[in-house]
Amino acid sequence: MLGRKILIYGSIGSGKTTFSREVFNDLTLIELDEINRNLIEPGNSGYVELKKLISEEYFEADGHINKKKLKINLFNDNKLREKIENILHPLIFDELNKCIKGKNSYVVITPLVKTVLQKIKFDLKIKVLCNSNIQIKRVESRDNLEKNVIKKIIAYQENNYELIQPDFIFDSAGDLELQLIKLKNIL
After folding, report:
1. Helix (H, G, I), strand (E, B) or coil at 132
2. Which CATH number characterizes residue 48's domain?
3. How many CB atoms lie under 10 A from the CB of residue 57?
4. How far apart are CA 170 and CA 107, in angstroms?
5. Containing H/E element for 18?
6. Spatial contact of 145 and 105, defined as CB atoms under 8 Å apart
7. pTM, whole model, 2 decimals?
8. Which of these, 79, 72, 78, 112, lies nearest to 96 by C-alpha position?
9. Which tens digit of pLDDT belongs to each residue from 28-40?
């Protein structure tokens, strides 16, 4: 798969990362969620900028951001989400550009795609989806969020995909072998 620039996208808990690691483990995998997590660690650029913007209620005693509380409020307050996205998204894309610089093959894994597609041309766009009940259970157990918050996150992210035409749709709750055969035909 030399010279392949692949975008893997799907909403929270859809199975993007698991799918990518199983299928594209021979390529450089770049997870925008991981970049974001690193940026908001104490002392890093995203953290420094967020510290200026958000109130102390979002910070733990040890200085770390209370990600659960912030995530809940992000999807209940559109203005807060927009402010934070305006800070973090440029930082995330700067890091992404550093990761892909000079590479002609990589996989970018992200829950949001509109901005990524405006900045980078991909050879293949794969949407990962999943039965919403399974998706909600995955996120509940992983992130300990309530169903209503998870549903808001999924709706927001899915809205981001409305005008995007994937080259392949992978159902993470479906028959893996059958889907891999179909995917290999387009690779």
Report:
1. helix
2. 3.40.50.300
3. 9
4. 15
5. helix 16-23
6. no
7. 0.90
8. 112
9. 999 999 999 999 9
